[in-house]
């Protein structure tokens, strides 16, 4: 039996999104930039989706710029904020997604000072430590709202307030927050916020960058001037329709009892298992844990053979063998960081899935311990 428990990597598409994608792909045949009836019909679909997304996160419609997803949104925001500067300090959390850390690394290599602020042992990057890193040279601040590995909710509001006061562009990567925690773009009042459709049951390869009114975007790929000259390229009309249709379709909070039961059974049956960030505010579907002495990749492969789809380390780079930078930043040593598994429950998962996963983990752990000549 196959069980999908890797929702933070990508969430299985919801029916409403699949229907919207199929219908739009079949019926909205025109190019949304064309002036004729077919173009106007496609344009209307985009405009409706824009209104719906803006409404969902309390933003103005004009703030929503459609992109190919979270990675592109983060890159546009970072390049736009830093473009006017030749040097300066960029403050980010050390637990950002690679879609933030990698572009910032390029700026570090070209002379910018990138300060990566570490979380506490619970995975929380305190507002105080972010604020302490901001100086008068700071030209950008990046702080994710929810970490993709731990599910920990970060205190972005206080940092946003300071950035507004000091007129520092701030990017909030809300890719893992959408649908899981309340989002209010107007109230947050930051320059940029990134979203991605496939984390909420929408299609892959489409997302949005929220941009505060008056903030200029740097076009990374100049062209036909779509999205009011802010992001060129013919819009992914079916994807955009699917994104809007997916909004609010999943009640992630309903997954909390399953996650909690899983963690409780895990630590009962594998006493050495350690739940990461158990005391921090976390999204309801995510459980990150370490099994000391085990190799996360090997465990993952054994679980895969048993039909379970889970992640080890960072899901977006699960082909890589590097230990999780998030766990290292939290102060775990390499060996513990390599023993991590992330389970992110998806709609449709049940208590029976959680129980079956614990049983499979016990079996894998006993087998691996046996192979290592240890007693289980
Ligand atoms: C926090 C975070 N930011 C950005 C991304 C990248 O989003 P996308 O896959 O839409 O490019 C991800 C994907 O896992 C993510 O978890």
What does this 3D model show about the protein?
The longest helix has 21 residues, at 351-371. The protein has 376 residues and is α/β, with parallel strands linked by helices. It is built from 14 helices and 12 strands. Helix 5 packs parallel to helix 6 (156-166). It has 2 domains: 3-11 and 251-371, Aspartate Aminotransferase, domain 1 (Alpha-Beta Complex); 15-246, Type I PLP-dependent aspartate aminotransferase-like (Major domain) (Aspartate Aminotransferase, domain 2). Strand 5, helix 6 and strand 6 form a beta-alpha-beta unit. It has helices spanning 15-27, 37-56, 70-82, 98-109, 127-133, 156-166, 185-188, 226-229, 237-246, 256-269, 296-305, 325-329, 334-338, 351-371, and strands at residues 3-4, 64-67, 89-93, 113-117, 138-142, 170-173, 192-196, 207-211, 274-275, 286-290, 308-309, 340-344. The protein has a 7-stranded mixed sheet, sandwiched between helices. It has a 3-stranded antiparallel sheet with strand order 9-10-12. Residues 314-318 have low confidence and may be disordered. The site of pyridoxal-5'-phosphate has 13 residues, from helix 3.
What is the count of helical runs?
14
C-alpha geometry: globular
Ligands in the model, by name, code or SMILES, are: pyridoxal-5'-phosphate
Q: Which segments are poorly predicted (pLDDT under 50) over 5 or more consecutive residues?
A: 314-318
Domains counted in the coordinates: how many? 2
Helix content: 25-40%
Our estimate of the beta-strand percent is: 5-15%
Q: What is the chain-wise order of helices and strands?
A: EHHEHEHEHEHEHEEHHHEEHEHHEH
**CATH-scheme architecture of the largest domain:** 3-Layer(aba) Sandwich
Outline the biggest β-sheet: 7 strands, mixed
Helix/strand/pairing category: alpha/beta
CATH superfamily caption of the largest domain: Type I PLP-dependent aspartate aminotransferase-like (Major domain)
Span of the ends, CA to CA:
26 Å
CATH topology of the largest domain: Aspartate Aminotransferase, domain 2
Number of strands: 12
Average per-residue pLDDT, rounded, comes to 96
Radius of gyration: 21 Å
Strand order of the largest sheet: 2-8-7-6-5-3-4
Top CATH class of the largest domain: Alpha Beta
